[in-house]
């Protein structure tokens, strides 16, 4: 017989080298997975076996019923015919088992009247044992030995590969050992009870921990600020303290870390936006300093991003009333954390508008302007106002306006009025007009070559060339390009603002947002496109005529209409007499007993309607307004009286023929009708300004000076002329100067004798009987409730 050659060869060294580490690792993982699956199957079989034994032992035997006689006879005959079993070959245990099985009931002895299925119990009893018996038996075999290939040895005979057996990990044994170790640890911990600390000891321990955390935060912050480029790891460590888990100091530590990181980022962030590197830049070799700067910028941006995500998550958890799984911080404490997080976001929004993720901060802050919490809403609104104020170019403002417009639309115009009032703080004074786009920044024209040769000498051409080159370089660095960009951004911003305003006017006219819309339209009306003027004026007049607006809202409608007509609307042929009549009719609706902002709007309306449109205003209209304003000055507070009289002074100087109101003689036919609501038809030329003589005895000295000045004909020079600080200021400015915000007028008599009271009433002979009765009531109330001295009250009320 020829002996067969063993075809298996010892693996060569080259082949061993080709065997990759990945294959060996995969082989090792497969072996371990097989061992774990074998151990799991073994435990499963043991569990089933125990369950089967438990089922058999818990089963109770059913007693055998008496057979009927006919069945007994038949059974005896069958037993005689059957061959006898060789009982001598059976053990005692087997005989006993057979006897036990014979005692159990079968379908022959079963009660047929029962409704239970015949084989129900039998199937249930036999299923577990049969299932176990059918399972294939597996003998516990030794696990296959796994070989680890070592470095080969080379001798004279050749290369000898080296291997060694890898120790096999027994999974089941390891699990049992781990369980025993855990039990031992639990027993040890239960044997050693921790001492119970008193309240004072707990407070001392908390103070000590808090002090340690504060020192640690301060040390990290100081190290980062001293050397930012080499302290990214410390910045990461400080940011990790935002997830402080100690329930005793978690809230305070997280607040301190939030504020500390905010101040650190404000100091170490560069004044430019960091962009990610391209693939080509990553593979390009650079100097060591440049590589170090790149690593610092990359680490700074990543840590700043994680910090903003932590702040955002804190706010979201508070808004959604969610608790973390660790339950370290309660829901009540989350409100304080959320307030600090919003404060940090607002500060970063204002201080770092140029840095990365600024748009993300805007998206976070703008919805919080509509928050139910007044503190958070005010913080966000103030931050956006500051951002608008310092935004010179307009790109940041455009981003904020886009987000606000989207928020208003997504909420179906159900937002707080403060959200829309933010638009009033936009720094937009001019926009890009389509016709004049080319004329906004006239480009510098340079001479052509032919013109130079024709008009200039050789030396002049040389100097001209150098001069033009310098001018081109200056134009690139000049702000002319940024001005064009600024106008484009402002135009786009204002388009979004007007789109929001027009949607509200069209869809939700009875919304609480209407005052903010009208106020915004009044401010930016001179920048509205001429195409919208007709439709907008019709809408404003319909709003006034509907009667659903408040007094302040109707004043805003009037102011908006005249702002439109005083700007580009000069070219339009529109008669605003309805708006004049409305303002003339509603002047007496001003609150006379308290300072309010409605007077400011009235003074602004008068300035736009009468002073700026002096060429379109008739003399009859000017006379009617001066007379009604003088009557109104008797009833309002001193600051309002000063503003009204200053407006009258400007009107008398603008319309010189109105001095006929200072004469008692009637001009023309007709009788003055003060109750008529049409200024053109009330015959104001046939009355006189007798109210000025009453205002000369006003208790406020500035009102007295204005009354004397107007009686003298409002001269610009002479003894009756006003001081420069009064004559150079408008009625609105004077009203703001003498403003008594939040004060109401209380009659200035308290601890006064009845004789002085009668003297006070007799001196004011210009008052009618109803007004005298009202003052008498106030005097009586003041004597009971406010025992103040008359002179003292006059001193406090005097604002000169």
UniProtKB/TrEMBL annotation:
Start and end residues of each CCAAT-binding factor domain: 554-707
Annotated spans, Disordered: 33-89
Keyword Membrane assigned: no
MF-aspect GO terms: chromatin binding
Record-annotated membrane-spanning stretches: none
Residue stretches in coiled coil: 449-492
Keywords, ordered alphabetically: Coiled coil, Nucleus
Record's subcellular location: Nucleus, Nucleolus
GO biological process, one term: DNA replication initiation
GO terms for cellular component: mitochondrion; nuclear speck; nucleolus
Basic residues bias locations: 40-51
Keyword Nucleus: yes
Domain Nucleolar complex-associated protein 3 N-terminal: 213-307
Family: Belongs to the CBF/MAK21 family.
PANTHER family in the cross-refs: NUCLEOLAR COMPLEX PROTEIN 3, NUCLEOLAR COMPLEX PROTEIN 3 HOMOLOG
Protein name as it appears in the record: Nucleolar complex protein 3 homolog
Organism: Terrapene triunguis
């Amino acid at each position: 017989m020829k002996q067969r050659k063993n075809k298996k060869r010892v693996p060569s060294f080259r082949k061993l080298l080709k065997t990759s580490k990945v294959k060996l690792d995969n082989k090792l993982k497969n072996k371990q997975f097989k061992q774990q699956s074998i151990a799991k199957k073994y435990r499963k079989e043991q569990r089933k076996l125990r369950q089967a034994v438990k089922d058999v032992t818990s089963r109770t035997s059913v007693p055998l019923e008496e057979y009927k006689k006919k069945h007994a006879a038949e059974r005896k005959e069958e037993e005689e015919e059957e061959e006898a079993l060789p009982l001598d070959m059976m053990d005692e245990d087997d005989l006993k088992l057979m006897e036990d099985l014979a005692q159990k009931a079968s379908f022959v002895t079963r009660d047929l009247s029962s409704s239970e299925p015949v084989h129900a119990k039998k199937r249930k009893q036999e299923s577990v044992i049969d299932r176990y018996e059918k399972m294939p038996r597996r003998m516990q075999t030794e696990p296959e030995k796994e070989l680890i290939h070592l470095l080969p040895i080379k001798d004279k005979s050749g290369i000898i590969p080296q291997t060694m057996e890898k120790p096999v990990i027994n999974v089941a044994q390891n699990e049992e050992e781990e369980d025993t170790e855990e039990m031992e640890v639990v027993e040890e911990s239960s044997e050693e009870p921790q001492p119970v600390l008193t309240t004072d000891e707990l407070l001392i321990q908390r103070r000590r921990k808090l002090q340690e955390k504060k020192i640690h935060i301060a040390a990290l912050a100081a190290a980062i600020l001293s050397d930012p480029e080499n302290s990214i790891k410390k910045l990461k460590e400080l940011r990790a303290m935002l997830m402080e888990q100690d329930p005793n100091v978690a809230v305070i530590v997280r607040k301190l870390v939030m504020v500390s990181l905010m101040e650190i980022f404000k100091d170490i962030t560069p004044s430019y936006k960091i962009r990610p590197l391209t693939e080509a830049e990553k593979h390009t070799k650079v100097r060591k300093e440049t590589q170090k700067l790149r690593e610092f910028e990359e680490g700074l941006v990543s840590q700043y991003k994680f910090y903003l995500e932590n702040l955002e998550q804190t706010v979201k958890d508070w808004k959604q009333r969610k608790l973390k799984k660790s339950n370290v911080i309660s829901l009540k404490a989350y409100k304080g954390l959320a307030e600090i997080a919003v404060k940090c976001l607002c500060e970063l929004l204002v201080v770092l508008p140029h840095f990365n993720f600024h748009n993300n901060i805007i998206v976070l802050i703008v919805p919080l302007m509509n928050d139910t919490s007044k503190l958070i809403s005010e913080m966000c609104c103030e931050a956006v106002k500051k951002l608008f104020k310092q935004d010179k170019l307009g790109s940041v403002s455009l981003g904020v306006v886009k987000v606000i417009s989207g928020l208003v639309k997504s909420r179906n115009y159900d937002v707080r009025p403060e959200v829309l009032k933010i638009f009033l703080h936009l720094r937009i004074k001019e926009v890009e007009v389509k016709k004049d786009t080319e004329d906004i920044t006239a480009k510098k024209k340079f001479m052509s070559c032919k013109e130079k040769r024709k008009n200039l000498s050789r030396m002049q051409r040389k100097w001209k060339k150098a001069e033009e080159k310098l001018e081109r370089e200056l134009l690139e660095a000049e702000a002319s390009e940024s001005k064009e960009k600024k106008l484009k951004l402002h135009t786009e911003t204002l388009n979004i603002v007007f789109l929001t305003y027009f949607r509200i006017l069209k869809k939700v006219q009875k919304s609480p947002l209407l005052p903010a819309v009208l106020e915004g339209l009044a401010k930016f009306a001179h920048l509205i496109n001429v195409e919208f003027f007709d439709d907008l004026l019709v809408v404003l007049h319909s709003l006034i005529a509907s009667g659903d607006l408040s007094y302040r809202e109707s004043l805003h409608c009037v102011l908006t209409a005249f702002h439109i007509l005083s700007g580009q609307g000069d070219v339009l042929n529109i008669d605003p007499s309805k708006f004049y009549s409305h303002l003339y009719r509603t002047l007496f609706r001003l609150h006379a007993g308290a300072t309010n902002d409605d007077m400011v709007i009235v003074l602004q309306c008068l300035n736009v309607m009468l002073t700026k449109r002096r060429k379109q205003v008739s003399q009859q209209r000017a006379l009617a307004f001066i007379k009604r304003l003088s009557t109104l000055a008797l009833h309002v507070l001193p600051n309002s009286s000063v503003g009204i009289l200053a407006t009258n002074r400007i009107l008398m100087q603008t319309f010189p023929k109105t001095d006929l109101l200072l004469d008692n003689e009637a001009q023309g036919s007709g009788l003055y009708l003060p109750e008529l609501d049409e200024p053109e038809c009330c015959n104001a030329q046939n009355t006189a300004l007798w109210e000025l003589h009453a205002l000369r005895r006003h208790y406020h000295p500035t009102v007295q000076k204005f009354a004397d000045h107007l009686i003298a004909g409002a001269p610009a020079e002479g003894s009756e002329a006003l001081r420069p600080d009064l004559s150079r200021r408008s009625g609105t400015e004077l009203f703001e100067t003498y403003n008594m915000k939040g004060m109401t007028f209380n009659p200035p008599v308290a601890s006064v004798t009845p004789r002085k009271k009668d003297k006070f009433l007799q001196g004011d002979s210009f008052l009618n009987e109803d007004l005298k009765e009202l003052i008498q009531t106030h005097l009586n109330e003041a004597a009971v409730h406010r025992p103040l001295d008359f002179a003292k009250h006059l001193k406090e009320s005097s604002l000169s």
